[in-house]
Amino acid sequence: MKKLMKSTVAALALGLSFGAANAQMAPFGSDDDLAYAALIWEAMQAQNLVGENAIKSFPYEGMAPHGAMLETFYSSAKIGDHMGALIVKRNYGPADVEVDQIIANPSKHLGAITVMYKREAGFDADNQNWFWAKFLPDGSLDKNPKGMGLAGKVAKGADKGCIACHSGAGGDDYVWTTDAPVGMAGMN
Fold first, then answer.
1. How wide is the angle at C-alpha 173 spanned by C-alphas 142 and 63, nearest 5°?
2. How far apart (Å, rounded) are the C-alpha atoms in residues 35 and 31?
3. What count of Cα atoms within 13 Å lies in the side-chain half-sphere of residue 12?
4. Domain map of the chain by residue range?
């Protein structure tokens, strides 16, 4: 993973693309999306939002598809030259998991980390320029049944998935919660 991140950073600094042909085949899961997701993971590690030393909060009751219990963090991160809003949701299970169990041993119950990152204007204007990613606890990307990494414009145009669900959130920010900091979702 570190090798991928180092090469990704170097390539982004030089303005290189990671596979334009692959990017044309699907709205998500391209080499570019995977590389960008690695940079987001690195930014989350730097803020202690993921990993062994991750900050903690009080878990709350969740719902499908995220998990029985959740923790949500609102932040911002700089990827390359762009500063964007960052929403990180830790998804815990199984269905009957209780708050005390998560507090006592969060890593035992962590199923995934789902992320929304507000990219630069023009990334995906149809969907408020959000970049979506679903990480496994070890930082690798989860995959759909066809083996595509869940990063980028995840399930764009589909009836189900990140974009389909969040586009129904109301307003124009694609954020379901009402407790996001003022101006967070609108950050460019």
1. 50
2. 6
3. 19
4. 2-166
What is the CA angle 131-33-69, rounded to 5? 50
Does residue 155 contact residue 146 with C-beta atoms inside 8 Å? Answer: no
99: Cβ contacts below 8 Å, ≥ 6 apart: 58, 59, 69
Cα(24)–Cα(126) distance, integer angstroms: 17
Tokens at residue 94, please?
Answer: 């199984």
Question: What are the pLDDT digits (tens) for 157-183?
Answer: 777 777 676 776 666 676 766 655 444
What CA–CA distance (Å, rounded) separates 15 from 23? 16
CB 144 within 8 A of CB 127: no
Return the residue matching tokens 């499908």: 64
Whether the CB-CB separation of 112 and 137 falls below 8 Å is answered with yes
Calpha distance 48→52 (Å, rounded): 8
The one-letter amino acid code at 41 reads W
What is the per-residue pLDDT for 179? 58
For the segment 49-82, what is each residue's pLDDT rounded down to a tens digit?
Answer: 999 889 999 999 988 788 899 999 999 999 999 9
C-beta of residue 52 within 8 angstroms of C-beta of residue 62: no
Distance (Å, whole) CA 1 – CA 110: 20
d(CA 80, CA 95) in angstroms, rounded, equals 38
